[in-house]
Amino acid sequence: MLDPFLRLAEQRFAGARTLGCYFGSFDPPHRGHVALARALLEETDAVLLLAPTWHFQKSFTFPAHASPSQRVEMFSHALSNPKLLAGTTETLLFLEIDARLRQAFPSTRILFAMGDETYHRVCASQRYFVQAGKTWEASHDAALQEFLSRCLVWNRSGAFGGGRALPSAPPISSTHVRAIAQRLWRSHASVTSWHQALDPLVPPSVVDDIRSSGLYRMGP
Question: Total structural domains in the chain?
Fold first, then answer.
């Protein structure tokens, strides 16, 4: 699941007192994702970015979507920092990810950054365990409550009481970015037009990655 990535993370961040984890589709990573990752870097000794290889509600098909490795590469280009490591995960279950991380970093406090929509999905972890064909044990209830105490929640929807204000505004949607890219491909837009349309939404390096890889040429 996370083993190859965790071996690299252990080598890179051994001895970290605090470790931030940011899980998301990042398809593509936009300025809101990058701003949240930067905010998390300010609060922790190191940050892990995790992109799932599959999704409960979505399917990733090229070129309508970027592959997990392409999303990791785009985020690494958008935010190059020695304290940050991006990789993929085959599990979507936060409690499983947390258990693996705590095994790898037993003396480290692990914090999870997320928007309030993701936080609500984490609160419904039992449903996702069942959907993944796994058994929800009685011990998972206590584990979930402890996990939620280590969540840093950003108020993406604007309706979450007690959540943190987004580090950048207005909120940006990866779906919207993909739709703009599709229109740019159809119109055979120039490089300048690509950057004019997308630089306010995504880092310029992501625009270049989209164009060089032929991403988002069509809808799903």
Answer: 1
